[in-house]
Amino acid sequence: MEAQKVDMFIMTNGKYFESHEVIQIREQLLQLDDSKWSLIQTLQFKDPTTSLIVSLLGGSLGIDRFMIGDTGLGIGKLLTCGGFGIWAIIDWFIIMGATREKNIAKLRQALY
């Protein structure tokens, strides 16, 4: 794929991934053929900052976990009121990383 397209993709979507993964993503996209480019462009990633805000406001109800696709954890948080508040507080610190991991998994699934 063209380096200019890949660089534009990285500039636009870099905040959705862990910083140490960006270089690896760029290399994988450069090796990709143009037939998958339209699929890659249509992917919609979850914003880690939005996940954090939702976690702060509705984390004890599991809304943050439902939002990123962790249905089982969302149900667990909902039934236990955020693990009696403890789980909700822990998620304030890890939800952004979990969102970025889900985004990279979605991208890797589209690449292969």
Automatic annotation (TrEMBL):
<keyword id="KW-1133">Transmembrane helix</keyword>
<protein>
    <submittedName>
        <fullName>TM2 domain-containing protein</fullName>
    </submittedName>
</protein>
<dbReference type="GO" id="GO:0016020">
    <property type="term" value="C:membrane"/>
</dbReference>
<keyword id="KW-0812">Transmembrane</keyword>
<feature type="domain" description="TM2">
    <location>
        <begin position="45"/>
        <end position="93"/>
    </location>
</feature>
<keyword id="KW-0472">Membrane</keyword>
<dbReference type="InterPro" id="IPR007829">
    <property type="entry name" value="TM2"/>
</dbReference>
<dbReference type="InterPro" id="IPR050932">
    <property type="entry name" value="TM2D1-3-like"/>
</dbReference>
<feature type="transmembrane region" description="Helical">
    <location>
        <begin position="75"/>
        <end position="98"/>
    </location>
</feature>
<dbReference type="Pfam" id="PF05154">
    <property type="entry name" value="TM2"/>
</dbReference>
